[in-house]
Amino acid sequence: MLVTLFRYYSNSNETCGLLYVDGRWVADSLEDEHREVKVAKETRIPAGEYDLILEHSPKFSVPERYGTPMLTVKDVPGFTGIRFHRGQTEKDTEGCILVGYGVERNLGGSRLLQTHSG
């Protein structure tokens, strides 16, 4: 399985993208902005090729509470715990990749119109 994140818009606060699996679009994405110097929980991961695994997140997928592992980006230099999860705005990213359906951009910042439920 090949997962591709195509980033098409970025400003000083956020990055919008499209998520593809094996060449098929599956979701829109929202991330933090690019920074030359990383700021914890406020910087997107660098472009590149990374392995993905399914694992439980201590914050979002505690097995006893949620029971579902999350898609996690592995071996990103200088980053840990980068996951794909739901959220509405850049404030919900904390360095991770939000997924959903439809992005609305306005002066107040972008937001995902409908969050992914899975």
Q: What do these coordinates show?
A:
- The chain is mainly beta and 118 residues long.
- Helices cover 0% and strands 44% of the residues.
- The mean pLDDT is 87.
Strand fraction = 35-45%
List low-pLDDT spans: none
Q: How would you name the oligomeric state of the polypeptide chains in this document?
A: single chain
H/E series, N to C?
A: EEEEEEEE
Shape call: globular
Q: What is the CA-atom radius of gyration, in angstroms? A: 14 Å
Total strand count, please?
Answer: 8
- SS-derived structural category: mainly beta
Helix content: under 10%
- What is the count of helical runs? 0
Q: Name the average pLDDT.
A: 87
Cα(first) to Cα(last) distance is: 18 Å
User: How can the largest sheet be summarized?
Assistant: 8 strands, mixed
Provide keyphrases for this structure.
mainly beta; eight-stranded mixed beta sheet
SSE order and pairing:
Blueprint: E1 3-10, E2 14-21, E3 24-32, E4 51-55, E5 70-74, E6 82-85, E7 97-104, E8 111-115
Parallel strand pairs: 6-7
Antiparallel strand pairs: 1-2, 2-3, 3-7, 4-5, 5-6, 7-8
Summarize this entry quickly.
It is built from no helices and eight strands.
